[in-house]
User: Fold these one by one.
Assistant:
Number 1:
Amino acid sequence: MIQEIAKRILAIPGHAWVLQMNFFAGALPQKTKTGQPVPSRVMVLLERVPADLVADLPDYMDYSLQVWNRGADYFQARTDAYLIFEALHGDWWRDLPIIFAGKEYRAWTTDAKGSPTPIAAPNDNGLFEFSTNYLLRIANLAA
């Protein structure tokens, strides 16, 4: 699921994100895919809590996603967080990109649980961090 959402975000116009270079899904690695250190300006999608399932709707889940980002200064990090927030929050009836055959998902709704929030301003390395949590109501169309 996180890979489909990552691909959806990377399709948003107006950003400078490149998968496995300054945009990561699942964890923040120590190095990029080319072996270079991860830059200070970075976006990471994280799965922090399990999805809520509904027994009567086996093809449905409430999927929680954290979008964490950092930048060299407060306004760079804030601008990046709000770019994603404005694209995702309130989005509805969005078919997610297909990554694996037989796995087709639709996000009925995508809602932020709050606005992007500074969580380190700055951190120990002088970088500014923001975090935003989202709830996606997902249907598995292939089931």
Number 2:
Amino acid sequence: MTPRGQGHIDARTVPPVHQLVVAVQCSLERASRAVVAALTQRGFVAREDDSFAVTHARPQAHLVRRILAVDPRHLCIVTVTDDSALIEMPIAFLVMASHGGITVRCNDPAVTFAAYTGLAAFGEELSATCQRVLRAVIRECASASASSNDSPPPLALRIEPSQTFI
């Protein structure tokens, strides 16, 4: 057992992370492609990092794809302003299939970068970009549902506190 203060992270001392989340009805592949396309359109270099299954104590498994995105201009801003914030790059989006739907989420950069000197406005701008990316996923999946004559449920972007880090 590691004594506190020597490589131990106490979850009670870690501030909550806020995530941008959207739930959609479409395939994992379509949602992943929509995230990458929306990021690329906004000047990011984006790639699907990995696909993996996450199994909880419950018997169902969740298929997850992680998409990493970075804009070289943002790296310059962070490096010049407060290089300790480089640990927050690249931005990671998780696309997760579970319970008959898809959830796409990313940590909210507005909250993440507010903790760094001089990067609060940058975080707000990056958060707005991430929200636009998630809205593009909503549109893409809604158009897929409309073309297949399914009636999609109401879709909304939400921000939720979470202790989960991506």
Number 3:
Amino acid sequence: MTPDRSSLGLAGALLAAWRENGAARLNWLIVGGFVAIGLVTSLWQVRALSSASALAIFGGAWIVARSIDWAARRASLLARLVPFALGLPFCSIFWAAVAPPQTQSDAVAGSTSCRAPATVGALAALPTSILMAPIDMGSDIEAICSYCSTHFVYTSNLSGPCSPAECELRDLA
């Protein structure tokens, strides 16, 4: 989900908390709180957005469900399309269809240049150092770089150049 969809889901969860009563209100406040925490965290680490969006979809589903009830009470054919229209922002294909083609090609070009040999070569040319942070640039990039990262401990898919204890005791001179 994009931040827009997560924000819409948060709005739906907060609207549900406002409209519901009793234990349902508390449940929606909890969902809204978790989504808000996820959105704030995604400002720091974009990967948190996927976790926030998993909960935000509940707010979106509540909006669509209420619109279905509303449309069922209307005789207009146009009113029957409202739930469909409200559900569109929660579908990935909708955002892909409305995004300008230039945006899509820029994203592809950016991801291609990020892993270009010249870029990775520049990383490999950095001096040997200790990086004590659980970052994730991709195990393929970390494998060719000469720094010692504790990230290898967190991902078991690659045997890194050293363990955290070795990183701390390593002589880099």
